[in-house]
Specification:
By secondary structure, the chain is α/β, with parallel strands linked by helices. It has a single domain, classed as Rossmann fold. The chain is built from eight helices and five strands; from the N terminus they run E-H-E-H-H-E-H-H-E-H-H-E-H. Strands 2-3-1-4-5 form a five-stranded parallel sheet, sandwiched between helices. Helix 3 runs parallel beside helix 5 and helix 4 runs antiparallel to helix 5. It is globular, with a radius of gyration of 16 Å.
Length: 203
Amino acid sequence: MSRGRLITFEGIDGSGKTTQVRLMAERLRAAGVTVIQTREPGGATGAEAIRKLLVEGDTDRWSPETEILLFTAARRDHVERTIRPALDRGETVICDRFIDSTRVYQGTVRSDLRVMVDEIHRIAIDLEADITILLDVAPDEARTRDAARGSAEDRFERFGTDFQTRLRAGFLALAAEFPERCRVVNADGAPDDVAERVAAAGL
């Protein structure tokens, strides 16, 4: 049995990742593909418990260094219990965020800790996506979407528009760094229109 594929979606908060993960999963299942749909932080029991620590509460709740360790702990549980078993079964895993978010949020924008992020990932996780879809959208549009969603998981959104602008630049730089696996997709417009662009990105 051949190894399955890991497809990740990245982008700033409010870029539509959760919706596009769901739409891609529906499209692939309709084509007969076995799909595991998951998210980070989360995707396994222990990882979901850590999620609440990271995405809720005050913006100054954790230092960037502590966030890296918490995200890595959640990711290790997620990979052990959900992602690797599915890949070993030959299934396709579609994940809402993965290591690239940590590279940009904590490694680039929150602080200059990219070397730390990559080294801890190499030691503790050692897994990269086969394909990464970067949903690119203007921060003002993303902020409007977030306000309409009204989620309590808004810790990173409350860092403000300038933070999201720097995140966007960080994600675009990361896509340029890894052109062999990253596809940048315009995330403006209706979800179905964005899904067509995602499908046209070579998946």
